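Sorry, any thoughts here?
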Amino acid sequence: MTYAAELGFALDLAARAGVVLMDHYERLEQIDYKSARDVVTEADHLSEALILDAIRASYPADAILAEETGEHKAKAGEAPTSGRGRVWIVDPLDGTVNFLFGIPQWAVSVACADGDGLLAGVVLDPLRDEVFAATRDGPATRDGEPVEASSRGDLATAMVGTGFAYDAEVRAAQAEVAARVLPRVRDLRRMGSAALDLAWTACGRYDAYYERGLQPWDRAAGELLCARAGLELRELPAHGALPAGLLVAPATLAGPLHELVRP
């Protein structure tokens, strides 16, 4: 299967959501506080509403998992799209704090999965007009062209991306890990959008990436991009104050980096 229909639909969804976000970028927004550090803006809500309405109209038999409104079951009475059911996993604005502060690193993430895993994913960077996409059986692409992930084998010269949680206790534990990593790599980057971090790792802008506390909508599309780019993906189990997470790297770096980031 090529999953062309699902990919085309995800591309269209992301593009339409991107237009909404660009209309609101660097404008005064209504802000709701999930916590002292975690916020949601009017743009998040508008982008998600557009995405949800489009999925319900085109794929009423599919479930949806969205960042702001959670889980939406398939429409009652509709036959499943596939024998094992499907779910659309969407982040209408990944990097909301960046968006709010005018920091140009945020994205739209749209993925589709079935009982066998991820089958299509798109990460759109509206500011750079870059779109990263992949399907279960195709290459990872940027603007329609296949990307090439890093093949670096030397951890000391590796550029590594990461991210931090909102919870202070978790951040303190993550800081201890970062303190181990930083002296051993070329540098460590914390940009703010996990979806873009994963997309950038897939296309070689980072050599590797790790982060704990990711939600399915943060990682789904980017995870597929990295897998289809040939990178090794390792799950990081929860430990103490550290939630579960994900490490992505070329096979040559995955082991040494894993040794640094695991408790």
Notes: The chain has two domains: 4-146, 155-261. The first helix runs from residue 4 to 24.
